Amino acid sequence: MASRYHEVYDGWKRDPEKFWANAAKAIDWFTPFDTVFDPNAGVYGRWFGGASCNTCFNAVDRHVAGERADQIALIHDSAISGTIRKFTYAELKREVVALTSVLKNRGVQKGDRVIIYMPMVPEAAFAMLACARIGAVHSVVFGGFASHELATRIDDARPKLIISASCGLEPGRVVAYKPLLDKAIEMSRHKPEACLILQRDQLPCELRENHDIDYADAVARERAAGANVDCVPVLATDPLYIIYTSGTTGQPKGIVRDNGGHMVALKWSMENEFGVKPGEVFWAASDVGWVVGHSYIVYGPLLHGCTTVMFEGKPVGTPDAGTYWRVIAEHGVVALFTAPTAFRAIKGQDPKGEFVPKYDLSKFRTLFLAGERADPETIKWAEQKLSVPVIDHWWQTETGSPMTINPAGLGLLPVKYGSPGVPMPGYDIRVLDDAGHEVPRGTLGNVVVKLPLPAGCLPTLWNADDRFRQAYLDEFPGFYKTADAGMMDEDGYLFVMARTDDIINVAGHRLSTGAMEEVLAGHPDVAECAVIGIADAIKGQVPLGFVVLNAGVARDTGTIETEVVTLVRERIGPVAAFKTVVTIKRLPKTRSGKILRGTMQKIADKEEWTMPATIDDPIILDEITAALKGRGIGL
């Protein structure tokens, strides 16, 4: 079908308030809003002032009262424990209401904060919705975060209560959460009044008397007593949650999400951007600890009346590179949203895609990739093996939903490899030089968004308006700074090339490491890659490449490295000064799949570095150090 994108985007530009007022009709409000947007409220303005609403009501209760009570709302698929649990909307409501009653009886009320420190279990979603039900502000901290990181978040959010579990499951190991939680509480200045602990069979823990409450016991008691807790009306501008940006050091950045704008933006995105209809099965293969888990495991699909899949496992190794196809086939998934890292891992283990034809993927329509740059080779591999559109898109924890995408629901536009699509309604995206002047199309610069930010974006940081202004608004007045570097082409497609600190300056030439990574990924033997800039006495900086080879590649690594260098010189030119590639077993990543390029650069440049809090496996950094020393780098 012909795409309606330009018509819809131009309609938003002509009358933003009319656009958002129309989108808001899809939400059930307790009282209507006085203003669609008030430019004088908050730091840069606030959305849907005067309205009252409840996010849990819109995600759960209205579907139960409507025609979805018996539809499956949530499927929990644990590839690690080999279990599947399913909950209808009616069952979801029963679980959420019982847990809400537990919270209420512990004195949790509107405005109080609750930290949720849990693995990928359904109870994590119940906890988020239970907080939303009574207007408490939840802050989900990624399960398995080190005690220090959890302690900084406890001190910033000052929660009344913490909801956690005895353990998390990783391939081949069980992670004990309780000792990490106890140590964090010991370290923090703020002390929560109690902890609600979900005991898991794989590793139960001891509960502290007069402080720890058994989750299953407490919920069962409320359910047996027939507890009923109505949804508490909150203002559209009241906070729904705080999410801390990953990898922060020192004072964490607590990104605030409001209730009204958040619901409107997510509900609109499900059909118009992701092309998914109510009643269909949507799967975001992320973690509830990250923003993707908030937006597209829990809130987006449930607001839209979909069935959402919550997956506990990995793209490879639980048990093999076919696990994603098994989940899609078994649950009738129509759209999958995951990180490019996941597909690079699958491609690395199964380069010929031999697992794909073993499963019935007939209901599967679209693959969405985001979270980091999707290199064209990975996209082309996925297109070829799956025979469905593969849609790269771009957004941030701060925005809560896509800033740019090729909108499946409005009708797909032509695909441009390397571009995460076109700006969505609400986003007037510009590219500026360091002095704040707009640059010509096709020129690399700072990617910014003209204020005001649309509904669903962060209105500020938790208790830190000045810090919000300083971090995002001061450098380019009138604009929100994304801290990404990129360019816009003549057709209005954005190309995000790197974080602004991943632009390297080689003898006065500003070069994108992302563009070089694209070339490295194009080599047939390369599964994954990263390029960093390292210090050079003559040129200031020079690029250094790292490659991980596909499973089963037996060719000489020196030959492959030479071929990769030649490719970069051919495609980008000698200006890149690209001369060195190091073959490694695996790349260091955060648990959400982002490559830790900054840490790799510090190791190569012999700078002091601290272990990133979000790292998946710290041993990889020892492997990187050894590989670099073997080449005389970082000595």
Automatic annotation (TrEMBL):
<dbReference type="GO" id="GO:0070013">
    <property type="term" value="C:intracellular organelle lumen"/>
</dbReference>
<dbReference type="InterPro" id="IPR032387">
    <property type="entry name" value="ACAS_N"/>
</dbReference>
<dbReference type="InterPro" id="IPR020845">
    <property type="entry name" value="AMP-binding_CS"/>
</dbReference>
<feature type="domain" description="AMP-binding enzyme C-terminal">
    <location>
        <begin position="516"/>
        <end position="594"/>
    </location>
</feature>
<dbReference type="Pfam" id="PF13193">
    <property type="entry name" value="AMP-binding_C"/>
</dbReference>
<protein>
    <submittedName>
        <fullName>Propionyl-CoA synthetase</fullName>
        <ecNumber>6.2.1.17</ecNumber>
    </submittedName>
</protein>
<feature type="domain" description="Acetyl-coenzyme A synthetase N-terminal">
    <location>
        <begin position="5"/>
        <end position="59"/>
    </location>
</feature>
<comment type="similarity">
    <text>Belongs to the ATP-dependent AMP-binding enzyme family.</text>
</comment>
<dbReference type="InterPro" id="IPR025110">
    <property type="entry name" value="AMP-bd_C"/>
</dbReference>
<dbReference type="Pfam" id="PF16177">
    <property type="entry name" value="ACAS_N"/>
</dbReference>
<dbReference type="InterPro" id="IPR045851">
    <property type="entry name" value="AMP-bd_C_sf"/>
</dbReference>
<dbReference type="Pfam" id="PF00501">
    <property type="entry name" value="AMP-binding"/>
</dbReference>
<dbReference type="InterPro" id="IPR000873">
    <property type="entry name" value="AMP-dep_synth/lig_dom"/>
</dbReference>
<feature type="domain" description="AMP-dependent synthetase/ligase">
    <location>
        <begin position="64"/>
        <end position="452"/>
    </location>
</feature>
<keyword id="KW-0436">Ligase</keyword>
<dbReference type="InterPro" id="IPR042099">
    <property type="entry name" value="ANL_N_sf"/>
</dbReference>
<dbReference type="GO" id="GO:0050218">
    <property type="term" value="F:propionate-CoA ligase activity"/>
</dbReference>
